[in-house]
Amino acid sequence: MTAGRIGDTALELAGVSKHYAGVAALTDVSLVVLPGEVHAVLGENGAGKSTLMGVATGAVTPDAGIITVGGEVVTGLDPKTAAQLGISIVHQHPAVLPDLTVLENLQVALPDEVFADGPTNAVARAILDGVGLKAHLGDRVESLTLAEKHLLEIAKGFAVTPRILVLDEPTAPLAADATDMLFRRIRDVVAKGTAVVYITHRMAEVRELATRVTVLRDGRVRGTSTVAAITDGELLELIVGRKLDSTFPDKHTAEVDARPNLTVEGLCGPGFDSISMSATPGEIVGIAGVVGNGQTELLRALAGLEDFTGTVTVGTGSHDARSLLHRSAFVPADRQAEGLAMNLSVRENAALTALKSFARGPLISRRRETDAVRASLGSLSVKAPSMESAVSALSGGNQQKVVISRALLSEPVLLVADEPTQGVDVGARAEIYGILRGASARGVPVIVASSDAKELEGLCDQVLVMSRGHVVETLTGADVTEERIVSAAVTSTAETLSVAAKQREAGSSGLRRLLAGDYSPAILLLVLMVVLGACIAPGSERYLSSFNISTILTAATAIGFIAMGQTIAMLIGGIDLSVGPLAGLLVVISSFFVVDGASATTVILGVLVMLVVAAAVGAINGSLIRFAEFTPIAATLTLYIALGGVAFLLRPTQDGYVSTAFQNAVNYRVGPLPAAFVVFVLVAVGMEYALRRRRLGWNVRAVGSDEPSARRIGISIDKTVILAYVGSSLFVFLGALMLMGQYGIGDPAQGSAFTLTSVTAVVLGGTSLLGGRGTFIGTLVGAVALQQLLNATAVLNLGSAAQYFFQGALILIAAVLYTVARSRRGTRV
């Protein structure tokens, strides 16, 4: 809703204020951005920059203030509306969905018009080529490096040719060539009239790109100026509120004949080879090179996260990977994916690796823990409402400080930091440098990898430059300069392929992509079904009979429809425990209407009542989860109990026989093939198509993959979740129709067992318990495989107890294997 014109501006924010739990994030902030300019926004972490841009892009609703876009006042701004107004944002933490492919990430985030100019794959490839991203369109995004995820995020931002482009720390993980590409793209869109809001902590970028600059501190505007009219010193004073004499602490003065406290000899591992180095107490070792040449892999090995050969000696003790895993501290480049447990509090995250030091006997002393964490966080000036606040509520820089605080609290023998100041403001950088220097002075070996050569020059006593997984030059003393570091890295990597690129090339075959995809569990399950059938058939003449095959497929159809509903719930990261009792209740309802002698009107009315009840149950489940903030288990368990009770109220005992004609129609078959099973297969194929090729399917998977990212790209989370649970219940309705034909009687107790059975079929088919990935085809195969196994127990006379045992064992094994396989694929950084 818009009204009233105000001037010739691209974006104007006037008097914006925002509070979280009573704490002011923004106070009376105003910002004017003109068409065809780059307006830089600077400030410390927690100053309110990202919150302000959240207001501008509709992700954050302000408590007060006026938003004007293109001269029109806008109210009720949300991410979807912002996109329609031509506002695009490149987030500091990429709003990408790890369980979706590169192509699907583009499709779900961008409007359909973007792909209207040609074949979808060709348009998507051109979008990626525009930012130099070479990833295959079918690669799952979780397999991309952190820098590649940022390039994907940048690609989305430029793909829509925005009127207003917000860039939040876009160069933090990028190498020099990618940064140059980004700057060229920014200049191109600015020349066409796009207004760019550029958030950064790097002063050089402000000088190179921006026309005007605004500084925020503590949620307030501290000044706005043209870039040409203000010095770096004046900007720094506005940012930190004080004069900053030096960013870097004094370097270590080497002692004569000092004994090394770190020696690495002949270290080899995935992505690096023959690495040797040594350092004396007080020295900080830097690792440099073009991104993707083995630096991160080396650091992960030194942190015990990767196996290696060679020797690592700290002090007088030699350490293998297992020892380093427990005794070293690692600060990862991707703090959200690897550094933090986002659902835990600030205190819990900081104390996680140091709990033993807070123990008194078998118990943890909360007082000792709290005092130690408070002191550590205070030394890093972490800004948080309280130590009990969720760490996800902190700004990116403050999250990074929590990671560093945890590393120091663990009292490590070796401190390994990968891009430790990425996304951290200039004031906090000085504090982090001081902390790293202090740790080194205490005798803890410190190794730092950074893509910022200037940072390595100012901080490190020696720098190892890597290329193609090897150390190509070691710089010490006066040779540690930005020019020497960059020259060594660029010269040595000319016309070579980075480690990350080689890994991608090795893993980009269609077969590898298939094995890593959603369909591999279903393929494996089909193989196991054939093996099981081959083992049982020779010992039983009736196993492959027409009657037995029909029995298996009919039962699989009933449980399969219910399991397809369960699939939808699990794809969004939830679960629906109510499916079993709902199926039983619907059959009970049918026993009052769909009976012999009933008129067609009565039968139709009964089916409609079943349909309405199913939809209502789904809506209640979704509403309890989204609006009453129940967990999916709590909400659906509530309905599980309630629906079972209603079924017993309607039919205290078995009664009410379903129409014989209806049973015959449901059980109609041609030879061994039930007609209902054919319908089931067609529905599964249709749902699979919608899941892969339609926006609603992408939205469902996006919510389950990463809800915060899904929200930031404009997906309505509440609507998607409620529709998912309604869809789940409607599939239970289809399953109930099958059960009416199979059992033919209103039994209030018959539905409860189908909850476990449906979950088993879904997990067997490869749908993740964590949400975001799965297939309806897999659920179809899972339902048939489950019924085949249960049928085999009957054929082999193993008894009903064996059926429950096998169901439980199957779901446990499938869930464990799938989760372990998924975690081992990991997140590349």
TrEMBL record:
SUPFAM superfamilies: P-loop containing nucleoside triphosphate hydrolases. GO terms for cellular component: plasma membrane. Its main location: membrane. GO terms for molecular function: ATP binding; ATP hydrolysis activity; transmembrane transporter activity. The chain crosses the membrane at residues 522-540, 546-564, 600-620, 632-650, 670-691, 721-745, 751-770, 777-798, 804-821. CDD domains: ABC_Carb_Monos_I, ABC_Carb_Monos_II, TM_PBP1_transp_AraH_like. Keywords: ATP-binding, Cell membrane, Membrane, Nucleotide-binding, Repeat, Sugar transport, Translocase, Transmembrane, Transmembrane helix, Transport. It is found in: Cell membrane. It comes from the Bacteria. Pfam families: ABC_tran, BPD_transp_2. It comes from Mycobacterium yunnanensis. This is ATP-binding cassette domain-containing protein. InterPro entries: AAA+_ATPase (IPR003593), ABC_carbohydrate_import_ATPase (IPR050107), ABC_transp_permease (IPR001851), ABC_transporter-like_ATP-bd (IPR003439), ABC_transporter-like_CS (IPR017871), P-loop_NTPase (IPR027417). It is a multi-pass membrane protein. Residues 11-243, 251-493 form the ABC transporter domain.
